[in-house]
Write a structure and sequence with these properties.
By secondary structure, the chain is α+β, with helices and mostly antiparallel strands. The chain is 51% helix and 17% strand. β4 and β5 form a beta hairpin. α1 packs across α2. GO terms for molecular function: DNA-binding transcription factor activity. This is MarR family transcriptional regulator. InterPro entries: WH-like_DNA-bd_sf, WH_DNA-bd_sf.
Amino acid sequence: MDSRGYRMGTGTVAESEVLGVLAPGGMLTAGQIAAEAQLTSWAVRRAIGQLESRGLIVANPYQARWSITPRGRSLVSASKGR
């Protein structure tokens, strides 16, 4: 991890935490993600925006819930193998 809080291959610590919360499956709201990851709502919203732009998570727009994509799941699996 560097001084900005980035982890190799996964982005920020907050992004890694969000992916970790979503990895088991299901669709969670930003509030649920924040509570489970013990992050501020601001940090979660920023991480969600970055992860979505990279295709690692997707939203269900009708319920404002987020889930991990197969690509995101692969990234989580790869980082656990280190």
